[in-house]
Each structure stands twice: as structure tokens, then as C-alpha cells.
Amino acid sequence: MARAENHTRKSKAARGETEIGTGDPRSRDQARPRLVGVIASSAALVRATRLRRPPDLFELRLDALRDSLGELDLAIPRLRAPLILTARHPAEGGQGSLGVARRRKLFERFLEHAALIDLELRSVRHFSALLTKMRNRGTGLLLSIHELREAPSANELFRLTHLAAAYQPSIFKIVIRTDTPGQLDQLMNFFLETHASSFPIAAMGIGKLGHQSRRQLLHLGSALTYGSIGDPVAEGQPTLTQLRRHGRAYI
Q1: Are 66 and 96 spatial neighbours (Cβ–Cβ below 8 Å)?
Q2: Host domain of residue 233
Q3: pTM of the entire structure?
Q4: What is d(CA 158, CA 142) in angstroms, rounded to the nearest whole number?
Q5: Any alpha helices (H) in 23-99, and if so which ranges?
Q6: pLDDT tens digits for 121-157?
Q7: What's the total number of domains in the chain?
Q8: What is the CATH number for 57?
Q9: Dist. CA 66–CA 223, nearest whole Å
Q10: 169 versus 25: which is more confidently predicted?
Q11: What is the pLDDT of residues 36-51, one digit of tens each?
């Protein structure tokens, strides 16, 4: 029964009922802002299964949940929203110093449940076999970059976006440090200039102005906005409740 429910959930995503997944990434409807509830601990996992009003998607941080896989197996059928699988690269905030082989194993273990899989632009080339399996199953690619130490230049952001286009992602996610108003302005300007690109962009900041960046970019139409369920996993990350309070007027 759980397998059938998961298949139905993924099929809805692919058909566009949740506006994510393998539909044409150029569809502007796909870029309607979506809230993502981040699950990065056993406590958050339990809480997520009990939410009366689930977010548009859940992100399963497999790197953070690597020692709780049995609990995850049991909980997944009770998560009432499509799933993003993430096993983050250590250089981009991943926990556990996981190498490619371990990350690949985690992705493949839970692949059947995924609507989207988050792979970093820096490491996507190491997952060619996984990408083939994703295409065969209709699982979307969420390509991402996380510049946690400093904000790259505007030219560098455009260069990375151009590189990402070669993989035809369902969504391209960009996270950069926003400790100063200038860094935040650069991220906002980048988003406004790329918002009409050939695939949806999810942009957000991390750091002192991370919370502010997510509120503002949510308002501008960032394809995804992440909020924690439980303790934040990133500096400046708001909670799901805070995002909903802020976004009530236009989501």
C-alpha cells in the first residue's frame, strides 16, 4: 500500500498537480512559490509526520539522517507531501563528511520515494548513473550551489547559471552568503534578471540577512523557499511557521 501511495504522489508531481518534477521546466506555473519543510533530525521527522498542514514539499536531509534510516523507512509513508532527497556535499554544508559513494547509496535507497533529487552543480557529473535512473523514473533534478563563505560576483552567478542550463534541471537553487545589504541587493538583482530564464530559479541567502532574503525572495517568486521543521540547519534559515506567517498574503 505504501508503495502505491508513493507512486501516486510522484505521479501527481509529474503531472503538474504540485507543479514540480518532470514537467516542462519552462512552464511559469511551475515557478509558483513553494514552501519546503526541511527535515534534518529524528525529532523533525516525527514532527513532520504529525503536521496537520504539511508544506508543499519536504526535504529529507539524508546526510543528517544517515544514522536514522530505519526510522526514515517507517516515516516516509506518513509524510503527506512530495519529497526532495538531499545528501549534501561536505563543502556545501553537508553533515558527516560523506563521499560520493555513500551519498549515491543513500539516494538510490530512497529513490522510489523522490519527486526531486538535489545534486550540487560541483558534483552532478559524478552521478551519471543516478541521473539515468531518475530520468527513467520521472524524478526531477534540483541542481544547486551553496556559496556559504562569501557571495560570488554577479558575473560568477550568471556563469554558474549558464553551466546549470546544460543539465536542464527542473529547478536551479542558488544559496549565497548575505551578511551585508550589498550582498542581499546583488542576490535580489540576480534573481530579477534570471527569473524569466528557461527553468525556475530558487534563490535564498544564508547568514545575518538570510531570514530577510528568504522573505523578500519568496515575495518576488523564488520557486522554492526553505523553512526548518525543528532547529534550523542553516544560519538565517526561518522556520516553516515564520515563512507561512510572512507569506500568507500572497501564497
Answers
A1: yes
A2: 2-15+30-247
A3: 0.86
A4: 17
A5: 42-49, 69-75
A6: 999 999 999 999 999 999 999 999 998 888 889 899 9
A7: 1
A8: 3.20.20.70
A9: 27
A10: 169
A11: 999 999 999 999 999 9
